[in-house]
Amino acid sequence: MARSSASEVGRRLLADMAAWPERWCYSTDDLPLGEKIVVAVEPFLRTLVDRGAAETTLRRHFGNVFFLGGDIIRAAQSDSDIQQLTGRELLRRFVDEEGGPFLYENKEEQRLFDATCRKLSRFVSSE
User: pTM of whole model > 0.90?
Assistant: First the structure.
């Protein structure tokens, strides 16, 4: 079986993002917030694909952004104000130059997640 090129993988990963809001939701009320998150992070992830990032890099960043979105949805369950934020405001609230929310007990996994969050924060700040 031939291996997929990184650009093919990137296109598949971008297409798979359409399912993220449904995968994150606790109830259908969460779908609009999930869709807002996808719209907010898509330019960042598309840029990685367009710049020809390696397949492993793409998978790592897409996976970390998926986990970030899930954490935003989880946080919205106890803070209804989150629903009112724009996509950009959501990203600025949850990621910054230090990284992202604490998700992992494993230091290496958290370090990789924070690296993605810092990169996303820089991208949002530069727009």
Answer: yes
